[in-house]
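hey all, quick one before standup. I had two proteins in the batch that finished overnight and I want to keep them in one place so we stop losing track of which output belongs to which input. First protein below, input sequence then structure tokens straight from the run.
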Amino acid sequence: MALLVLAMTAEARAAVTLDLSYVDKRSAEYRRFKSFVDRAVAGDPAYGFSATDAAYMYRLTGERPYGELAVRMVEDQVTAAEAATGQGLAPPVADDSYMYIGPMLRDLSLAYDWCGDLVTPKQKTRWKAYADQALANVWHPLVARWGGHWLPGNGWAIEDPGNNYFYSFTEATMYWALASDSPGWKTFLQQDRLPLLTKYLTTLPGGGSREGTSYGASFRTLFGLYRVWRDAAGTDLANANPHLTDTIAYWVHATVPTMDQFAPIGDQPRVSVPELYDYERVLMLEARTLTHDAAAARLASWWLHHISIKEMSNSFNSRHDLLPAGEDGTAPSALVYHASGVGQLFARTDWTKAAMWLNFTAGPYDQSHAHQSQGAVTLFAGDWLAVTENIWSRSGIQQGTATNNVVRFERGGEVIPQDTPTTSSMKIVETGANGEVHAVADLTPAYGGNPAIRAWKRSIAFKDRVLTIQDDFATRSDTAAIFQLNVPVQPKIKGNTATAGKLRVTVLSPVGASLTAVDWTKVDKDYTRGWRLDVRGPGSQFVVKLEAD
């Protein structure tokens, strides 16, 4: 396989040879980034400023103050680590299961390499010992040592290429392998970590992440590493499988029609409401730069020029705006998109801001940041009509079944949770004009063989701005099934109908169903607003129609 061959030039063998020729020093983006770094050189660094930012400016200009700042910042990192280990403690790089080792060792590696003429031999020796030990501890947690003390780690995600931590670990390893010209670390990447990663990504047709959307934006780190490895090692990981290119389409379709929010799939830890942010912009800039698919690149450019974030909103991300967004690009034409590898279906009636947009979930559930949302539907038209209650929580990590638009199963008054790892299935039965789609999902596997739930299948039919949901289920006699829908405002209930804002809900089956409303703010103080509509009734089927007034 090509990725196992390291075709490195003499220059690449000893350096992080990242090609920065794309940087336009006449652009507003460059001026903004330079101003951000100049402020730090002047002694007033803005929030989030990193040694990487200083190293970039030294690489781009050759002006000594930038390099000196990068070296000082990394020296501070290493000195702090030495102070901690001298007391028998793990250094900051080990915090939160080494979550931040990627950016920390990237800082060190770029200062070590790009600013190497300003680093003393003694510093290089100390930095190397620190970086080598940090990486050894990440990948071999049971024998981890700091300062001669045995300080084992928990090994979180070191064998899980679907987890965002894995990308941080890989970032640290790749940057340091190249900067230090370490045959051992390069071989480890080539023959072990990168094959594991690329093999996993082939299981994600349609792109995206099984961690959801917020944590899925961590692919921005991975895509950035593709550029580093391409430029230094001559190996194109970005196009070794369809994942990166597919992820462009995934994010285009996961963005709601108003182009300011995205499908709130999984944990939303930064802010609970899924507002587009710099991280999604970075991901698309990297993907656009790397894909060999010209149509996908034009689609990425269209998205970048039409979303609400026209440039990085926080200056500590301004370095990434040096990547070109391209011209206006080409608008999408497809109205239905199925990312089968992550189990997400998206549909919309058109590409105007007034469109109605749908998300339906059924597929693998195997990541800790994913939610018990197998079978969930989300509906948007101008604003959220029906959506996970998690977006109105303070924490953004409400994962339970009750917060999603599914059938809730209860036994003895207790909610039966969905199980992990499990894999539900989805079949697209039919598509038509104006985003019409009919899909059927078998969600029985989501309950891991729990005898209380013998079967649950959900069919959705989306046509002419109407979503019809049919649930067919079989449970034990002591198990109750409740159709539930989470909505922004209090539902007004009349017979078999309910109206919540612009959403009108009609229960077609069972006849005589009872509808009740739950105020989430009275359930848990974590919630700031939101209501849940519960539908109960006899039999083994629900048929519910959702439409917007």
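OK second protein, same deal, sequence then tokens:
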Amino acid sequence: MKIDSGLFEYNVRNVTSEIQPCCGGPGGWHHDNVYARTCITVSCGACMTEIQEVSVLIGGRAGDGINSAGALVAQLLNHLGYRIYLDFDYPSLIRGGHNFAIIRGSEHEVGTCREKLDFILALNQETVDRHRDQVHAGTAIIFNADLARSDGQGISIKNILTSEKAPEIMGNSAIIGGFAKAAGIEWVIVETVFRRHIPKGMDLNLSVARRAYDQLTVVRRIEPCNNPPLPLLNGNEAIGLGLVRGGLEAYVSYPMTPSSGLLHFLAGENEKLGIMVVHPENEIAVILMALGFAYGGKRAAVGTSGGGFCLMTEGLSLAGMAEIPLVLVVSQRTGPSTGLPTYTGQSELQFVLHAGQGEYPRLVVAPGDAQEALFWSAIAMDIAWKFQVPAFILPDKTLSEGTYSVDTGGITVPVTKAAPFWDKKPPYRRYADTPSGVSPLAFPGAKDAVVKVNSYAHDASGYTTEEAGMVTLMTDKRLRKDEELITGMNGYPQVNVHGSAEAPVAILCWGSTKGVCSEAGVKLGLRVVQPVVIAPFPVTPLKEALAETKTIICVEENATAQLAALARQHGIIPDAKVLRYDGRPFTYESLCARLKEVIP
């Protein structure tokens, strides 16, 4: 197919190498696509290739609605058949600062950003200036001509807003309308996306976008992919839907970035989902209220980040001693203390593994993208109630606030929603000693049952004791659940392998680094091994996944290689570490460069 836009011509040309030089004409550029192995080339007409991947940045100040604007751009690409990954970068400011979203669309699933951009949508001069090093010869820049100067196509957003009598916040609709025209996206798609995804002022937003659309010309046409649109979910939304699939009845949280989006999502959808959502006065109240829900028979979850979780650790120990099932979502950010509250990190792994005084079993899962987040959040809820243990879901800012294409219909979650309920034969003993360590459940109000839970050392009926033999008996009972957990997790995909499964060099990664490591692994011919279950540590599946490797490179976004340290405790010794801990996620290019430094 050949399209003449006046300035450029576009056509389809398959190539067999990863890099194919363009003709060298004006605007010519090339870009390797590690999945499709096609060259994305735009030139003066002598070198013509369909675009199969595109990266778009939209930037401005806090208060310009960059997050929602990025989501609309993502939906435009989604309706063209692209698989989406969106990363939102913002400082901890209510207004001002520099906010930007990078939306990457590809024929195939992606989970990381590229460093070079195909489109820059600049609502102010700072966006142009800050991202100059991310342009290439074919980058198209659409900018607010009232506040910025640049090569590319400018739009007087102020004039559009004045003529439409629209508020300043709708300036992002103008820049999106301009982008759609510059990218050759048909207006019917723009209108469909706006009508479907703008809840307020939709007609006025459309009028603003149309004025900008009509002012610009096509610069770089984005050709459709042969994929149907998929739901776009950020990690917090996926976790919320997974918890509901697992039987969630009550969600309790105090806002703390980057987990706050989960609270907002569930609160906004609570009636539709049939759940109770509560925002107490602080994190101590959060975990105690959630434990109260669970004691009363309601499946409950809490959400927080590292600083808030610090306040919950005594309540966590109560859950361990009282054997109350609870799910905790701890979304990581850069620490210690306040650290970088709106940036990412993977520094809470060891904290979550060892939080709380005393010894008791726990489940910890670290999903790598929104699809896995939905699946494992449901499993975490199921396992917490099946074994009466705390279950942790451990995302980070990259996953919690990143947006992904998710095939929700293709996710089969083996949730039983079963729990070891009391057979109603008195007397009821809340902590009855059983071979598995898991005692039968009953809830207040049950006939012939006194449901006594206790944070103190207790006997099988829940009555306080300091007798040495009983303390030992109850401790052994609780810890037997660890072995049951190990057996119970064998039916789940605890360790994923990506890239070249037989390669002698392996990347060992966890959490949101899955996306960038998988893509770098394909590029460099490496095996990529991703444990999703962190506790109980999947020693046997992980050793099987790493069998016959000669070199193991651990990739993490923390300063102390926390997964590497954990693996070492179980006899798995990484040979090299590639770490990043400045609050920003690895990009594909930066990780490839770092890996090349350590690959033997």
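Flagging for whoever picks this up: The radius of gyration is 26 Å. The chain has four domains: 12-50, 52-215, 232-410, 495-598.
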